[in-house]
Specification:
By secondary structure, the chain is mainly alpha-helical. Helices cover 72% and strands 0% of the residues.
């Protein structure tokens, strides 16, 4: 599975999330005038990336292995989430203890009794699960996006399980379920996460077009891209900002930002970087998930302890990157070997890797994943190649 150079893009998206919220620690004029939801748009592009990367991993690594898929996704999400949750609980509790009337405030809009209760702390440990604890105060406000991701992973896991018995049926089932969910969203029925179906569908379609390029597959990608642009401005952004009157300027900026970021993603799909540049891109990308989760604890400390100023804004950005790097070093890095073991792929030569890539390109969609599932051990990609491929967006 080739390395996809999505790493820098993913960390840019995480920085856009931080950029949306960093106004809380800026001066009064910044808080009053900063109304662009850059982070909300970035999360939608994250969903597109996930659709591509996780489907590619499922097709090439986890086909007929739904339990390994679930285990690896859990190891990707849970350690970083638990770490972020513990830090956020500590930061909010410390600020509430040291500063009179710290809660509630604009950044943490809940009373001490609401957010620091034992039952709420317990509920937050499971808040990334779809349908659980959505009405409770979150210690990580961005957990809603994890909930959407986990829902998508669940659908894909079921598809992998069905695919173990009937490959075509798995894709047909996924297509029908996705269509029904988005139809329900259009009619304002069902959970709000149904409205995010087009973004994941665009990522999946982009992967399928990469595996089996044709005018039809490209046309489907273009149609889904157009649908996502409409969904972004007409459904997603108004639901993100229900209390804010979105102007034509807001809609235009959000439209253009989503268009540019998604176009960058599509352009990057076939790009091949030199090994040294791929390594740099991967290292930058490793910061994206911890940066997305850990930025809130930095914001809480800055909001509580530092004066509102542009210097504080700059400090928060720098400290968030530093905390993300430390979190990746001490939380993510130790479990990467375990994740590679779950993938179950021994090392092989670069020549063999190149041979598999050429084989994949020569076959129509549907053959590659079966070969990856049934091939003997001496024909599997290296853990580094596979880890690079998955970490390019997962």
């Amino acid at each position: 599975m080739p390395y996809r150079p999505f790493g820098t893009l993913r960390t840019l998206l995480a920085l856009l999330v931080l950029l949306q919220h960093v106004g809380h620690v800026g001066p009064a004029e910044m808080q009053a005038n900063w109304s662009w939801a850059t982070g909300s748009v970035a999360v939608l592009v994250f969903f597109v990336l996930s659709g591509f990367v996780i489907t590619e991993a499922a097709e090439n690594i986890y086909w007929k292995r739904p339990l390994q898929f679930a285990a690896n996704r859990a190891l990707r999400i849970m350690p970083q989430y638990v770490m972020s949750l513990a830090l956020s609980i500590g930061a909010i509790a410390m600020a509430a203890a040291l500063i009179t009337n710290f809660l509630p405030n604009k950044l943490v809009p809940y009373s001490e009794d609401q957010i620091l209760s034992i039952d709420n702390i317990f509920a937050n440990f499971f808040m990334m699960l779809p349908g659980y604890g959505q009405d409770r105060p979150p210690f990580i406000p961005y957990v809603w996006a994890l909930r959407v991701e986990v829902f998508f992973y669940s659908l894909l896991g079921v598809s992998l399980w069905i695919g173990a018995y009937q490959r075509r049926l798995s894709y047909v089932t996924l297509l029908i379920v996705a269509a029904l969910m988005f139809t329900a969203a259009l009619n304002q029925k069902g959970p709000g996460l149904f409205g995010f179906v087009p973004y994941f569908a665009l990522g999946i379609a982009a992967y399928l077009a990469t595996r089996a390029p044709s005018w039809l597959s490209y046309g489907i990608v273009a149609a889904l891209f157009a649908l996502c642009l409409w969904t972004c401005t007409e459904m997603s952004m108004p639901s993100f900002l229900p209390a804010r009157q979105l102007t034509e300027a807001h809609n235009t900026v959000h439209f253009i930002l989503f268009f540019i970021l998604t176009l960058i993603f599509l352009i990057l799909i076939p790009v091949k970087l030199p090994v040294s540049w791929s390594r740099i891109d991967r290292r930058i990308g490793d910061l994206s998930f911890p940066l997305y989760l850990q930025q809130y604890v930095v914001l809480v400390f800055a909001y509580a302890l530092l004066p509102a100023s542009y210097w504080t804004v700059a400090a928060v950005i720098a400290l968030s990157l530093a905390v993300a790097w430390l979190s990746d070093l001490f939380v993510e890095a130790p479990i990467r070997m375990l994740r590679d073991r779950i993938r179950g792929h021994p090392i092989k030569t670069d020549t063999a890797i190149s041979r598999d890539v050429e084989y994949a390109r020569s076959k129509p969609f549907g053959v590659v994943g079966q070969r990856g599932a049934d091939a003997s051990s001496d024909e599997e990609p290296t853990p580094e190649q596979l880890a690079n491929g998955e970490r390019s967006g997962a």
